[in-house]
Amino acid sequence: MMRSTLIGVLALTALTTTAAWADGDPAAGEKVFTQCKACHQIGETAKNGVGPKLNGLFGRHSGSVEGYNYSDANKNSGITWDETVFREYIKAPRTKIPGTKMAFAGIKDDQKITDLIAFLKQYDADGKKK
Q1: Contact predicate 41/54, CB 8 Å
Q2: pLDDT of 65
Q3: Which of 32, 34, 36, 128 could make an S-S bridge to 116, C-beta 3.0–4.6 Å?
Q4: Cα–Cα–Cα angle for 59, 64, 67, rounded to 5 degrees
Q5: Which SS3 state, helix, strand or coil, does residue 61 take?
Q6: What is the CATH number of the domain that holds 96?
Q7: How far is it, in rounded angstroms, from Cα 94 to Cα 104?
Q8: How far is residue 115's CA from residue 33's CA, in Å, rounded to a whole number?
Q9: How many domains does one find in the chain?
Q10: Which residues does residue 80 pair with via DSSP β-bridges, in sequence order?
Q11: Where are the alpha helices (DSSP H) in 37-107?
Q12: Considering the domain boundaries, does residue 106 fall inside one?
């Protein structure tokens, strides 16, 4: 009986966590994105800089933005960006993809990551807001 209760609690916790991730605030995420602006751009006029442009990030394969010179580690990571993978990466980029050129220490705050995801998800591959 206790085991099934524990499983139920864990399942509910997982659902609640996933629902919380979906509730990010794009406006708050735009503020978090100021940490990213030194290297990345997003939007209709975005260009590659120190880092690749981030338009249409989710669903894209790592190392695939045309015109950006990725590390071999990034090109060969086999990653397709989704919320879970991005969340792991942005917390510790060099842990998720050893050998990445990204010299960012990471964002540790889960809510800030959730908000950043909500901000990034607004932009399609052409940089237009959905």
Answers
A1: yes
A2: 97
A3: 32
A4: 135
A5: strand
A6: 1.10.760.10
A7: 8
A8: 9
A9: 1
A10: 61
A11: 72-75, 83-91, 93-96
A12: yes
Low-confidence ranges of the chain (pLDDT < 50): 1-2, 5-21
pTM across the whole model: 0.82
Tokens representing 55 are: 């338009």
In sequence order, the β-bridge partners of residue 129 are 123
- The tokens describing 50, both together, are 């120190």
Residue 17 is inside which H or E element, if any? helix 2-22
Structure confidence at residue 22 (pLDDT): 57
Domain that holds residue 93: 2-120
Question: Is the Cβ–Cβ distance between 54 and 42 less than 8 Å?
Answer: yes
Query: Which residue, among 61, 41, 59, 62, has the nearest Cα to 51 in the 3D structure?
Result: 41
Domain presence at residue 125: no
If you search the block for the tokens 């580690």, which residue do you land on?
Answer: 73
Contacts of 33 (CB under 8 A, 6+ apart): 42, 116, 119, 120
Q: Does some domain include residue 129?
A: no
In a domain, 126, yes or no: no
Long-range Cβ contacts of 73-76 (<8 Å, 24+ apart) = 73/97, 73/98, 73/99, 73/100, 74/99, 74/100, 74/101
